[in-house]
Specification:
Layout: E1 4-10, E2 16-22, E3 30-39, H1 44-49, E4 61-62, E5 67-74, E6 86-88, E7 99-100, E8 108-112, H2 114-119, E9 148-152, E10 172-176, H3 181-197, E11 206-211, H4 215-223, E12 230-234
Parallel strand pairs: 4-7, 9-10, 11-12
Antiparallel strand pairs: 1-2, 1-4, 3-5, 3-8, 3-12, 5-6
């Protein structure tokens, strides 16, 4: 497929706007996805919009990383997907002077077929994930010899001061700040089962579905703290 599409960008000066960029072309191991919706992340998207996301300084950037859509085109090596399959987390690549801030607020995106890549004896590029987490120093006295502190989640605090005066001599520190794609994928079957059985009702977690043309309003609502749950952009 050729042509142009709409996407949502943060410019170098911090302004947000809808832009026109080329539709991405899948490589042999990728599939092209027509994006149907993308959730607004109160963490990553807002940090990127404020240009204070750790280790990300490439602007202008196309935003969005909670997208879902349907496959419309397959690369020649793709074996795990079929046209019409619905998939999560399609992404966008650098294009037309815009860097990828995952690019999910675009009309089209890409997904990769990891199984096909591995079947050909290749190794996919490691995904780029970042995060920070503060350590509560008062927990140091609770560590047993040979124990481990495991830090979860993301914090706006990019620095920390450690005081291990009350900790034993030998202990470990491990950061679990962002699940890998494999870890996320392993949970999809269970989550889909909960949805199909009615145990999990997605609409209960959505504040509003907002048309793509009004995406600025979705961001403004979060900035003004006028949304309680998740805003979802629909195409």
């Amino acid at each position: 497929m050729t042509g142009n599409m709409k996407g949502y960008a943060i410019e170098k000066d911090g302004s947000r706007r809808i832009v026109t960029v080329p539709i991405p072309k899948p490589d042999p191991y990728q599939a092209l996805v027509k994006i149907e919706a993308c959730g607004v992340c109160n963490g990553t998207d807002i940090k990127l919009a404020h240009q204070n996301f750790k280790n990300f300084s490439t602007y202008p950037a196309l935003l969005g990383h909670e997208a879902v859509g349907s496959i419309v085109e397959l690369g020649e090596k793709v074996s795990s997907f079929r046209t019409g399959d619905r998939v999560t987390l399609p992404f966008g690549e650098d294009t037309a002077g815009y860097y990828s801030g995952w690019g999910g607020y675009s009309e089209y995106g890409l997904v990769g077929d990891i199984a096909a890549i591995q079947a050909d004896g290749l190794t996919p590029d490691s995904p780029y994930w970042v995060g920070v987490s503060a350590i509560i120093n008062t927990a140091m006295s609770l560590i047993v010899p040979g124990g481990k502190i495991c830090c979860y989640g993301i914090s706006p605090n990019l620095q920390m001061n450690l005081d291990w005066s009350r900790a034993p001599y030998n202990w470990g520190l491990q950061f679990e700040q962002w699940p890998s794609k494999i870890q996320e994928g392993e949970q999809h079957k269970q989550i889909c089962g909960w949805i199909e059985s009615g145990q999990l009702v997605p609409s209960q977690y959505i504040s509003e579905e907002i048309p793509f043309e009004e995406i600025d309003r979705a961001f403004d609502m979060i900035e003004q703290k006028k949304t309680d749950l998740k805003n979802v952009i629909v195409f």
